[in-house]
Amino acid sequence: MRLKYILGFFIIIAFVVFAGVKLKSSITPYVTLEEAQHTQRVVQVKGERVPGSERYDFKRKEFIFKMKDPNGKEFEVRYFGVKPSNFEMASEIVAIGTYKNGVFQAQKLLVKCPSKYQAEQAPGVQS
Known about the structure:
27% of the residues lie in helices and 33% in strands. The protein has three helices and six strands; from the N terminus they run H-H-E-E-E-E-E-E-H. The chain has helices spanning 2-26, 33-37, 114-117; strands at residues 43-49, 55-57, 62-68, 74-79, 92-100, 103-112. A hairpin with a 4-residue loop joins strand 2 and strand 3. The longest helix is centred in the N-terminal third of the chain and has 25 residues, at 2-26.
């Protein structure tokens, strides 16, 4: 009977260790552009889009644009996919990917539009 408890304890410990390792590998941290340049991991970089820098390469099916990080440094982002529909209205963009060869290669783009989340003002109410 004691052997069952010992075996059960080791199975639980193994499961906890496995879950911890998987959780740590699935977390995508927010980093600055400078930090992204020095890591090989998939990271999230937040910034503002540079208006007028967008273009789409139809041959490679690649959306290319420039972002400005919170420190004001501009960098190029390449995203293999379709441009998000509300990209022009974006106040902030989060690019998820890796920095390689002087370009941030995004796997995902998250577009944040503040007007979408602002409450509508009722008629006759002044703020």
